[in-house]
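Students often ask what a 'structure token' actually looks like in practice. Rather than answer in the abstract, let us consider Peptidase A1 domain-containing protein, a protein of 475 residues. Its sequence is given first.
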Amino acid sequence: MDAFSGFYMCLSILISMGFLMTVDVQANPWKHIPPSTSSFILPLYHRDDPTSPLRQGRTSREEEIGRGRVASRMLRDMARVEGISKRVGATLKGHGKMATKGGHTRADATGRQNVSAPVNSDSGEFFTTMRVGYTDFQLVMDTGSDLVWLQCLPCTSCYQQTGPLFDPRASSTFAPVNCTSISCQQSDIMSCRGQSCQYQQAYGDGSFTVGSMARENFYVDNYMIHAGLLMGCGHDNEGLFVGAAGLVGLGRGPLSLPSQISSHTFSYCLSSSGPGSFILGHIDQVDNASDRVYTPLLRSPEISVTFYYVPLIGFSIDGQMVSSINPSDLLLQPTGGGGVIVDSGTVITRLVPSVYSALRDAFRQAAMARGYRLILPGYSLFDTCYLRPSSNMRPFPSIELHFQGGASISLPSQNSMYSIDEENGLPIPLVCLAFASVGTSNDFSILGNVQQQGFLITFDTQASRIGFLSNQCSS
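Now compare that with the structural description of the same chain:
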């Protein structure tokens, strides 16, 4: 173990025991966590929300090139799903490392193969602000990955971000990770270059980051959440996140933020209009809520530990189970295939074709009985669209999700239908079923963030369960 790693391990132990004293305010204006603090609440902003720090004072790419906002979002979403598909497929085939979409490789002076990519996917959906060292940065929050990283100076190739790049030279608490340290052996994305611990992380959709591993202090407001968090300092980054400084991985792997700070519980409320919330740790009013429902969190026996799987077994429309859905088509298989992934970065819930067809057909039939006329051919990846209903029409059919163990959640209309109001080239406002097929080449499904919005969703890895509490984002 190198000196830095040993120091930070001891420091982390002291913090967890509550014995770390407050730093001199003149030396560091940001206070450490008081021993009584067990949770942190951060605002979450959607990338399309005008109140987001990433949107203030700048024009969106969709506005600049005249592309429809929904069409652009669906293109990003398709790239996201393809990225997950490549990662799942690569692991099942025994590769264990993430692939790139149409990418190529290039070797540096050491002969190490660095990932490269031909596309810009702009795949970040939700962002928050954290202080890293002594500076605030906007970072993507992502349940579908583990690594925490920022764009860093000096930068070989960096995308445009809002605000300055992280400068290690300006932080007295920044510490590079030595190649021989235990920290450099935690993941196969790390390798040695001289005495430096290097990393290369590809996301499967053409996005990547390459750089060096380091440790740095992370803060929320005025409190340190972790001394010496293991992070990537990205010097070569492409394809990511519309102005964000980097990414905070929330997955189940050892490099994720929850894993590093030993927080077995985190929660979020997602909102596309106005800020949502991200919670690290426990909140009493959440823990004691009697109307929260739980279902188990599953782990694939073969696939990367990153993903969170849930035992979704079926759907009902207007209270009637869709009997043509075979629950086994949704379950995680012993071989590692199948299953339903909860993902904050995927927009529209994707279902295996057999399940999606059954749900779609049942919904269409129920909507037709209420007087709705299907508009073909739909829009983008949506194939079940209707004219926006007038005030005197009955609401759209309700959709309920059912999980193993008897848990179920009923989706409000805004979680089951996607509004398309002002798209370029679209003469009429549409409302579309917010589900789609994952494609014939995939056997897994994804619970997307449109269906998650408005619910306080709690990931409890210690108890291996996930909780859903409706209508709690405002509080």
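One point worth highlighting: The longest strand covers residues 223-238. Ask yourself how you might have guessed this from the sequence alone, and why that guess would often be unreliable.
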